[in-house]
């Protein structure tokens, strides 16, 4: 269960998915652009953000369609060469959304699909994060989903910390909040370790 | 207020919930204990009105934290605006490569964003009104609110869920900013530079001051400066070159004239705050 204040979780739940209303609802005409009397008809096909669709599904008010990022077409694409697929375009929170949507839809293959996707992409991502230069953003960065991006940054920053430790850089630095320029280290002696 | 009366009319067999009005700066921690839980199935009973009034007082609390601003129209999708507020934060964070990426979104709180905050609250008022009118409708038709599952019910559910969602967004927004403001105290000391101050809301500045005071009184009690480097130095003295004119500074028992490009041999603990503040 993610934190109530977790920004990533909140933003992830904003992902739009398509649903069909199983009941009518009054006073919410905004949801259905085609409606005339400020209400949603039974059987209307609309796009809802995940947080709303999820809750309504639990109350059996709507039924959720499988989002396009888990469609057969995307799966074939990923099966062909997982590393080259731009997951961010399909869905910035690909894995998180996948995990949350599994209990809501009848398709039970999503779990294994997500697992395969991740494992086949992870290796390349990890090796690149260690070898890529620090100053330039690697070419494949825009292809990563948000979760992969976080992993990438984590591994890169730990690599940088390791290098700094080996070189014995200075410990005292200006607080990074100040100034826009990257790390201008102020020479202090003796430095440790 | 007519709406409030309507609310009380509903409170037949539900326990009224008291939400103490607190200043914005202390809100998040105390509300940690009450995440989403009881609100989820509330539309199944009379509890709804109760929780609703809870939500309403919640908003009045939040509203007091925000500057008043001109009104804008209802968002294109429920909850869209609130999440945009958060997205802006998250984008700023991701855009920064440095480990302390947090700073960026602090630097980003411009007028448009505080507008957004206000707009979200307006949106909530709108939801609240619609929710009430739907419930009123149901009452006029003499329906049992607890059991009826008609169009009005689901309309009300949607409005209610939107309220909760907006609440979560705003709470997360404030909470995450608080965390950064706290960390600023540890990194920069008790005085914030102007460039950061202008990005903060008045209440946030006040929060920073209070936090700073609490920390200082604690450190005075312990007789220990907790903000210095965590690794014990090999030598208590370090050599520093001054980058900018600071003037005479009283360090411990003697005064040092820190002029530009002069070299000094200082106690490490004395020099550290100057280094972290880029002087």
UniProtKB/TrEMBL annotation, chain A:
Residues 5-56 form the DNA replication complex GINS protein PSF3 N-terminal domain. GO terms for biological process: mitotic DNA replication initiation. CDD domains: GINS_A_psf3, GINS_B_Psf3. GO terms for cellular component: GINS complex. Coiled coil: none annotated. Transmembrane segments: none annotated. Residues 70-166 form the GINS subunit domain. This is GINS subunit domain-containing protein.
TrEMBL record, chain B:
It is found in: Nucleus. GO terms for cellular component: GINS complex. Residues 149-222 form the GINS subunit domain. Keywords: Coiled coil, DNA replication, Nucleus. The keyword Iron-sulfur does not apply. Pfam families: PSF1_C, Sld5. It comes from the Eukaryota. GO terms for biological process: DNA strand elongation involved in mitotic DNA replication. Residues 117-151 form a coiled coil. Belongs to the GINS1/PSF1 family. This is GINS subunit domain-containing protein. It comes from Zingiber officinale (Ginger).
